[in-house]
Design a protein that fits this description.
The protein is α+β, with helices and mostly antiparallel strands. The protein is built from 2 helices and 4 strands. The protein has one domain. The longest helix is centred in the middle third of the chain and has 22 residues.
Length: 93
Amino acid sequence: MFRFEPGSYQTPSGFLPALACYKIGKNKKEIFDYILTNIKAIELTEQKAVESAEKSLKKAFKKKQKTGKDYNLAQSLKSDGFIKVDNPQFAKD
C-alpha cells in the first residue's frame, strides 16, 4: 500500500507541484519511497503548486475508484505531467 502527500518542489524558475510517496509496511509503518513532480506546471508560489498537486491527486483517485486499478491512478498522474524525481534534495528545517 502507498500514501501520497501533496507538496511542492522548488526550482530556480518557481515551484513544481509534487507528491511524496510513502510505502505502508508492517504495523502500518510509513517509509518514504519517492517523489513525483509535475514538470509541466511551474507555479510562482508554493501554495499554488500544492493546490495543483492536490487537484491532480484527487482526479487520479477518482479514476482509480471507477476501475479499482492502481494503473489508472498512475496513468492519470502521468498524463498530468508527473514524473519521478531522481535523487531529490530536501530543504532543511
